[in-house]
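Notes, p. 3: input format for complexes.
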Amino acid sequence: MGKTTGFLEYERREGKVREEAERVQDFKEFHERLPLSEQQIQACRCMNCGVPFCQAGAMLAGMASGCPLHNLVPEINELVYRGRMAEAFRRLSVTHPFPEFTCRVCPALCEAACTCGYEGEAVSTKENEKAVIEYAFEHGLVSDGEPAVRTGKRVAIVGSGPSGLAAAKELNRRGHLVTVYERRDRIGGLLRYGIPNMKLDKSVIDRRIELMERAGISFVINTDIGKDIPASKLVSEYDAVVLACGASNPRDIKVPGRDAKGIRFAVDFLSEVTKSLLDTGFAKFPTELAKGKHVIVIGGGDTGNDCVGTSIRLGAKSVTQLEMMPEPPAKRLPSNSWPEWPRVLKTDYGQEEAIWKFGSDPRIYRTTVKEFIKDKKGNVKAAVLISLEPKKDPATGRMNMVPIEGSEKEVPADLVLIAAGFLGSEKYVTDDFGVELDGRTNVRTAPGEHATSRAKVYVTGDMHRGQSLVVWALSEGVGVAKQVDRDLMGYTNL
Ligand SMILES: Cc1cc2nc3c(=O)[nH]c(=O)nc-3n(C[C@H](O)[C@H](O)[C@H](O)COP(=O)(O)OP(=O)(O)OC[C@H]3O[C@@H](n4cnc5c(N)ncnc54)[C@H](O)[C@@H]3O)c2cc1C
Ligand code: SF4
Ligand code: SF4
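Output follows (494 residues plus iron/sulfur cluster):
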């Protein structure tokens, strides 16, 4: 424990966030860092708890509580407080392959479970993590990690999202020769083409990929496994193949008028925006996608919020975000006690920007679309919304949200973005590899394992556990690397 009375003496402070009026003018990151001296003070609020829930990564009431990577949070916080940043970086590196990603995009499961947050404000572990990793990059402490000895084993990784990258880094560190195949034109998966640039600047990915290439990892882009190269070729040419293709099947909304032009999946929209920004070196914003349009976002989650923030940056005329479920409470209910993940109302950056720009929260709860209305050219021009109410299904006893007849309301809509989640893996890949699936079309393995039903083929990330978070994808990537290494070498020291 850095300072025994730190949690009593200091309030939580966070880095500045650029004002809405300024940040909606660009796609740059908007969270600034505290000066290091102030971050050290924040780190001394950590109480070095006997039971550090912050690093447990345990499942409580169906949600993760604490860091799934089991970062050594109290130790790192103490080292930050003492200004021993190089050591803090070494402790962070024990469990964490890429802190520069999570310190920007993680919902901070560590903080939700922090004991300091039981009565007051949690320790700012996520910002401490950012201070450590950015210090390490700035001071040349992050090495490429090229192994001294090669094992002669070759591993192919299909998919370059956070999970595939984490597996690649670990397996390469162990001395295996790793090739990562990616069907898109750039590396990074949803880090690149899902999460918008203002949350994760894409140069942060490039900086890491350069190091990984220097360490001997090969990246092959624009190559779709299952289409450009058959699964059988990979399985015969490599000692192991890791599937890290994500859960890329978006959930659709099946209502009349769905075939209208102007109704798109959120990820396609977000990906097109980022690609256009990267292709033009941020010289041109693809305003034609949303400028002057009434935008409806279907889905009240984080992806929906990213669509709200992106549409505002592109000059949308109005943005409405629909959520089927009731509005969450402002504070934890007694049934959702600490250290469970707090099911409370969160107003994220996109919603803040909508409130600033349009004067009201874009979210409408207990509402969905009943029908889309087209103009003569087949473009969407309006959406018929309908309110929902919770009703118990007498057969199953489950509570469902059901439409309230007569509550229909027509609103203008020129662009509709469906952000209703993902359904699992894509069939052409899993068919080509001939791997078994579970009921949710995730690739099946034994519990806690990564080996699929096909010999030499492993699975990791969203393709394994379903749509999730970057921190889980990384934890899966580290896990699959251990299993592949053990199977190739007879033991693992990863
Ligand atoms: C819009 C959006 C915002 C998000 N924001 C956050 C956030 O703020 N914080 C957070 O923690 N999580 C966030 N997530 C979730 C997070 O991005 C994912 O959980 C994580 O990226 C999953 O990692 P992955 O490596 O399993 O798969 P992915 O990141 O999906 O990567 C899979 C990669 O495999 C490639 N691929 C697929 N099939 C093939 C093939 N046959 N051949 C070659 N390549 C293939 C794909 O092109 C893709 O690049 C967000 C998700 C979305 C959609
Ligand atoms: S990875 Fe996420 S949950 Fe883990 S310590 Fe960092 S911010 Fe917290
Ligand atoms: S739970 Fe909070 S206060 Fe306790 S060790 Fe973890 S970060 Fe520190």
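The longest strand covers residues 380-392.
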